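Input record (Table S2, row 259):
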Amino acid sequence: MSYQNFNLEGKVGVVIGGTSGIGRAIAAGLADAGADIVPVSRSPEKVRDAVKEIESKGRRSLAVPTDATQREDMERLADTVLDEFNHVDILVNSAGTIRVGPFLELTDEDFDVVMDTNLRAVVLGCQIIGKIMMKQGRGKIINISSLSAFWGQPDIIPYSISKGAVAVLTKSLAVEWAEYKIQVNEIAPGFFVTPMTSEIFNNQTVAKLTENHIPMGRFGKLEDLQGAAIYLASRASDFVTGVSIRVDGGVLINGKLKF
Ligand SMILES: NC(=O)c1ccc[n+]([C@@H]2O[C@H](COP(=O)([O-])OP(=O)(O)OC[C@H]3O[C@@H](n4cnc5c(N)ncnc54)[C@H](OP(=O)(O)O)[C@@H]3O)[C@@H](O)[C@H]2O)c1
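Output record (NAP complex):
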């Protein structure tokens, strides 16, 4: 291939939540495009397994189990990655969790765990890795948002609040850091079956209803997300910042009314 702007050889990426589901698929895709990748999460076993996958692709990696909601943990992660690689070019914020239930039944703990995982971890990732990127004078940040940042969805309101906040953070940082040549963008996935959503979509009625509402007629496959991530991590997107790329089979713009 002669078009080289998608080539990520020589780049180093940290993927928070890169040991499962969407983050893991993105980590693998970025490695396939040439990047060395550090897939991060709390579980040492999951981290080890994800690191093995990256190394099996001939890329370098590093096992640093990290709780992304904890500033000290994230600072230790950043130091360890810098010691090993000397630079960080790509940050993907994909750690996430969800609590399902009517608004009045959700507990303080439900709110706290969702906001900590889906928002605080993104803020910490952007601050701590973003500081390194600022010194470098370059960087690509990709936040994983959600369609729930765009529409009103019952029963997952803390989740939607956290994702709405990530969408605003993405746009605001895109403007604040443009002068440092750091692009901050987001991917808003549609419906994907992962450990986070399997409990919801194991219900066949819910799964069928959901599928019927997706214009492309199917759930997303995790590899559907890799192209958008490679684009946003690469030179090909150097003049693109503050955007949201939906990878959703058209579900958000589905105005189809069944008469
Ligand atoms: N699946 C979908 O349909 C969908 C749709 C839209 C958006 N998303 C978003 O996509 C992202 C990934 O979700 P997923 O569906 O791929 O879920 P998943 O398979 O459950 O992955 C979540 C990842 O986050 C990590 N994680 C959770 N808490 C963490 C913490 N405190 N510190 C570090 N890592 C943590 C988990 O690993 P450990 O447990 O080892 O920490 C795991 O690697 C989330 O932000 C989610 O909101 C998903």
